[in-house]
Amino acid sequence: MSDVRVQRESAVEYFKGLVDEALAHQRIAAHELTSFYVVQLLAGFLQRPARETDEPLAVQLARALASGGVQQRTSLKQIGDGSLFVCGFFSDSFRRKLVDVDYYVSIGGVAYGMLSRRETDALSPVFAELAENFVGFVDVLSEVSERSSCSSNTDLLRLHERWLKTGSARSGRLLVERGIVPNMSLRDTKIQ
């Protein structure tokens, strides 16, 4: 027992290491401020209570867009951040639900895109980068989730479904690593 070492680091330090590794592994050249934002987002979710609402995400987005000023910015940020976090950490939880990960990807990307249009906002470039590469940042959070043992992606069928819905390069690589070659022609085919 005397050989056991306990490493003491803050949540920000812990997530910074994981995010930096995941960004490198995913080959995403994120701006430093965007990387910092993602780290802060993860650390913040440890401290903030879960916001439960039965209101559909699209309704929340419509309400946010109809509001103005600080309320609009706050609501859009909550929608974008929440969508990114849920897609990255809990995408497997969408199984057998009315909406799937692609719905959250779409809504989160729109929310960040709207936030990026405010030229006076210092975080506008961050939101633009998150909107433009939402799926890439979902992949980063998925890798962080796996490395921090917060979720498991052992279900190959679900991984394939995620790849079909989002086109995630990371999901495609994971499929190849597990011996499944993703077929690009299937992404355009919808099974009714």
**Structural class, please?**
mainly alpha
The helix/strand order is HHHHHHHHH
- Amino- and carboxy-terminal Cα gap: 58 Å
**Gross morphology:** globular
Number of helices: 9
Largest sheet: none
Mean pLDDT: 81
Number of domains: 1
Question: Which percent bin holds the helix content?
Answer: 55-70%
Poorly predicted runs are: 1-7, 150-154
Strand fraction band?
under 5%
Radius of gyration: 17 Å
Query: Total number of β-strand segments?
Result: 0
List keywords for this structure.
single chain; 192 residues; mainly alpha; 0% strand
Report what the structure shows.
With 192 residues, the chain is mainly alpha-helical. It has one domain. It has nine helices and no strands. The protein has helices at 11-26, 32-47, 57-66, 69-90, 101-116, 124-132, 134-147, 156-166, 169-177. The longest helix is centred in the middle third of the chain and has 22 residues, at 69-90. The chain is globular, with a radius of gyration of 17 Å.
